[in-house]
Design goal:
Length: 358
Amino acid sequence: MKKSCSGCFKCLKNKNTLEKKEIQKKTCYSSDNPLLDWLSNIKSPFEYYKYDIIEIRFKNNRKEFFINKKRLILNQGDMVTVETKYGIGYDVGVVNLTGELVKLQIRKNKNTNLNEYKTIYQKSTDKEINIWKYFKKKEFSTLLKAKKIVKKLNLSMKISDVEYQGDGEKAIFYYTADNRIDFRNLIKKLAICFHTRIEMRQIGYRQESAKIGGLGSCGRELCCSTWIKNFKSVTTNSARYQQLSINIQKLTGQCSKLKCCLNYELDIYLSYMKDFPDFNSKIHTEKGIAKCMKIDVFKRKMWFSYIKKPNIWFKLEVKKVKEILEKNKKNQIAPPLEKLSTVNSIHKTELTFKNLSI
């Protein structure tokens, strides 16, 4: 997404009025969610790498590492021309990180093999940027045409995004499918229609929602399309530990998978729940056997109800529950819940609907 420059260091250093007018016409390709490059000017006392490593950002916040062999002076937001994966043609991207912060990102992603990194050719010229803009505008119309071709061939797949290479020599089609697809005939028709090299790349449903983007139920932009890069598995146990009702419609996101935010506070809940007794354990009282109905992790409270009267709940402290369980192990029966509870009982009533004759 393009944003007009509103006072970056690169633009403010030119103070002449004539130069300011020229700068206002240009566009500064700053990141929508820039990571503060606070280590860009700090040199490491250790030579871990023979060449400078630069992190380049492409479409949909796709980021890759490149080697700056020519020792070009690059700043965050500069447009650069880089080597492609297979060495055919060139690609255009935006400098995202430089300096020591890149090395921290490399350790985080565990990509320490320098032989896998491609090189940065140069800062992109005006001609290269114009070509890149031209093919970038064509991506939406290419996506619509590709979907029509897939529909005619009756293929059980969905093309979610198209990305042109910087020089337009190749187009990458991202698709999702439940089963294996034979798209040899599809590639021929796409190559004839768009007159370029075609690459089909299958992605998961989480990656699809990250590329398309959107708003979540919280009202904010999707985490997967803004900052999440490594997707972790999410299970219904994450919701159970946080005492959330298992409502699939509320727990699933736009990708029809469980929401990634269910894992955000899971570690805190697990650490607090270590001191809690087993939720399936039952306590024996003078009025009968009671079982746990609900817990409050941070207030350290547990709600119990008699098995014969499940609609009446009694709140107990965790310490009190542990004492009762220890007495039960010694074959000692605890007093009724009415005496153990420090607050009034909670009555849970069930709604019943009667047949009304009209």
